[in-house]
Amino acid sequence: MLALNSPFVSARRDGGQFVVDAGAAQGERTRIRCAILINAAGIWAPEVARAIEGMGQERIPRIYLAKGAFFSLRGKSPFGRLIVPEPKTWRQGGIFTLDLAMRGRFGPDEGWVDTVDYDLEGWPIAHVYAAVRRYFPALPDGSLTLDYAGIRPRLNGPGGAPADWLLQGENEHGLPGLINLFGLESPGITASLPIADAVVGMLAGRPPPFAVDPTQYGNYHPPGAVAAQLPPKQDGKK
């Protein structure tokens, strides 16, 4: 069953299954029973987790919202392939991509926000020209136009080191049949098939596919069994 326009309201365990309450367009609620519940709600995943009865609040990480602005390029594309420059440049909007119509686009130019808002009015653009011109100095003035914005759920905020995605199964939170996927951003689309394989494995009782560093996730403290998967640190090395 595919239920569109049905916002998640709550879930609880009952008789070995989940009872899920969902909203509907007319305001009424629908109740669904399922044996497996996968929380893959992106920027809303922590909010969904908090609405699941029995989900320990201390197991729910805080997410930080990284808003990215994308810019369309007027005129013929100067490149015929993806270009990913060094990190300083690509974080300022310097990544070049092509859409399905082979139109050029730069971005994202990232900035931290506190609320989910896709408006781009007033978004600065001068530094994006400077970033792109580090490898494409012939970029003409006035050739970039604000196109659209996206928001990524990051597990560490401004100044923090990048944190891995956080996959939780029963071993991590104690609820049979529940999988939480926290911090998955756009590379999660590229990796969707391996992520699905990992979820199937976790439902069968296997651990998450990679170790969890308990220092990465702020207020989230993973169980000792997961943290113990990390290799021992050597002196002078991270």
Describe this structure in words.
The chain is of the alpha+beta class and 238 residues long. The protein is 18% helix and 27% strand. The strands form 3 sheets. A 4-stranded antiparallel sheet has the order 6-7-5-8, covered by helices on one side. The chain has a 3-stranded antiparallel sheet with strand order 1-2-3, with no helix packed on it. Strands 4-10-9 form a 3-stranded mixed sheet. The longest helix is centred in the last third of the chain and has 12 residues, at 192-203. The radius of gyration is 21 Å and the shape is elongated. The N and C termini lie far apart (47 Å). The relative contact order is 0.16.
Write the topology of this structure:
Elements: E1 8-14, E2 17-23, E3 29-34, E4 37-39, H1 45-50, E5 64-73, H2 87-91, E6 96-98, E7 104-113, H3 126-132, E8 144-154, E9 166-168, H4 170-173, E10 178-182, H5 187-190, H6 192-203, H7 224-227
Parallel strand pairs: 4-10
Antiparallel strand pairs: 1-2, 2-3, 5-7, 5-8, 6-7, 9-10
Please give a quick description of this structure:
The protein has 7 helices and 10 strands. With 238 residues, it is of the alpha+beta class.
List keywords for this structure.
single chain, alpha+beta, 3-stranded antiparallel beta sheet, 7 helices
